Structure formats: C-alpha cells, structure tokens
Amino acid sequence: AIERTLSIIKPDAVAKNVIGQITSRFEAAGLKVVAAKLVQLSRAEAEQFYGVHRARPFFKDLVDFMLSGPVMIQVLEGEDAIAKNRDLMGATDPKKAAPGTIRADFADSIDANAVHGSDAPETAAAEVAFFFAGLNVYSR
Ligand code: CMP
C-alpha cells in the first residue's frame, strides 16, 4: 500500500553535508519527498518526539545529540514506505548495519546514527502529524 513515513536526517549527517546523498537514496528507491523542513529542534520538541524512550538510560544523550545542530525533517511517500525506509537506513547501531545502508555509510555511533525513520504505521502517522500540519504535506 502507499504509505507515508517520517524521516529525520540527524545533526551528524547534516554537519557532514550529506542531506542530498541521503535524499537521493530515498528517491532512487521510489520514495517521494512530500514535505520537508530544516530546523533546530527545541529541547521540549525533542523530548516530546522521543517520549517513548523517556525512561531509557540513553534518553538524555539522545535528546542532547538531537539539539546539537539543525535536522532535516522529511515526509516520504510511496509503496511500503515505512519498511522501505527502514531497509535503506539499516540497523540502529551502525556497527550492525548492513553494507550499503545509510547508517553503514554515514553513521558514527548509535547516537550519531545519521537518520531516524518511523517504525510502524501508527508511529508514522503520529510522527508526521507532530512535525507537519496536513496542508504542508503535498501528496503526489
Ligand atoms: P532513532 O531511530 O532515532 O530512535 C531512538 C534513538 O535512540 C535511536 O535512533 C538511537 O540513535 C538512539 N539510541 C541510543 N542508544 C540506543 C539503544 N541502546 N537502543 C536504541 N536506540 C538507542
């Protein structure tokens, strides 16, 4: 089915100047960018976005990292977009990510892991709505 998923190109990848290289991989896989913005998150936004991880030991480091520079937030649309994006990203820990995946090629550590992608249809809908008003998502 045609799905939408939320992608975040994290501060490490923005700093490495690979927004375009990462976005090209989405496009080459048939995913379309239907919304996008480059933003510096506030602490409140990062804490709310990652709220499910609030009790985890890595929460503070994760939030601090996400505030370390601007992030490129995109909505990707296409056939099986959620799973397709997760395949393109590779495993959360770049040491475990398959060769040729975004994290294998661009990530440095489990925190500085280049990209975030929604993990399921329910989280995708919530994450897209968290960052984009409906009228700013241009289905195509
Ligand atoms: P992301 O997909 O953005 O979702 C939560 C993030 O927490 C994850 O990518 C990692 O960057 C970060 N993180 C740090 N440590 C861990 C861990 N042990 N397990 C899962 N995620 C972690």
TrEMBL record:
Locations listed in the record: Cytoplasm
Subunit composition and interactions: Homotetramer.
Family: Belongs to the NDK family.
Gene responsible for this protein: ndk
SMART domains noted in UniProt: NDK (SM00562)
Record-linked PANTHER family: NUCLEOSIDE DIPHOSPHATE KINASE, NUCLEOSIDE DIPHOSPHATE KINASE DDB_G0292928-RELATED
E.C. designation(s): 2.7.4.6
Free-text function comment from the UniProt entry: Major role in the synthesis of nucleoside triphosphates other than ATP. The ATP gamma phosphate is transferred to the NDP beta phosphate via a ping-pong mechanism, using a phosphorylated active-site intermediate.
Listed NCBIfam families: PRK00668.1
Catalytic activities: a 2'-deoxyribonucleoside 5'-diphosphate + ATP = a 2'-deoxyribonucleoside 5'-triphosphate + ADP; a ribonucleoside 5'-diphosphate + ATP = a ribonucleoside 5'-triphosphate + ADP
Keywords per UniProt: ATP-binding, Cytoplasm, Kinase, Magnesium, Metal-binding, Nucleotide metabolism, Nucleotide-binding, Phosphoprotein, Transferase
GO biological process: CTP biosynthetic process; GTP biosynthetic process; UTP biosynthetic process
Matches recorded under PROSITE patterns: NDPK, NDPK_LIKE
UniProt-listed Gene3D superfamilies: Nucleoside diphosphate kinase-like domain
Residues annotated as catalytic: H116 (pros-phosphohistidine intermediate)
InterPro entries: NDK-like_dom, NDK-like_dom_sf, Nucleoside_diP_kinase, Nucleoside_diP_kinase_AS
Record domain Nucleoside diphosphate kinase-like: where: 2-139
Any one Gene Ontology molecular-function term assigned to this protein's record: ATP binding
The protein's required cofactors: Mg(2+)
Main location: cytoplasm
Protein name, entry field: Nucleoside diphosphate kinase
Any GO CC annotation of this UniProt entry: cytoplasm
Residue numbers binding ATP: K10, F58, R86, T92, R103, N113
